[in-house]
Specification:
The protein is 36% helix and 43% strand. The protein is of the alpha+beta class. The chain starts with a strand and ends with a helix.
Length: 88
Amino acid sequence: MNEAKVIGEIQKNKREKIIVSANEFKGHKYVDLRIHFNDGESEEYKPSKKGIAIKPEIAEQIIKMIQEAAKEIANSTESTDSTESNKE
């Protein structure tokens, strides 16, 4: 696998998207999550330095931690919302 295989992309904002791909570099395979940007000169998105490359072996652990962090944020938002509504 010499070329990146794009798995999916999510629009982050008007000028940026997050692209998840499966890559290989110098014989090492990895999962790449990278922000790509539109420079305004073309319709093409270009990769930025902002991103992370991880070994496939630890991808599942990272996914679990991201989900846990998202739940923590959701729970703290719910707590804040209920506290604020009690003040009214």
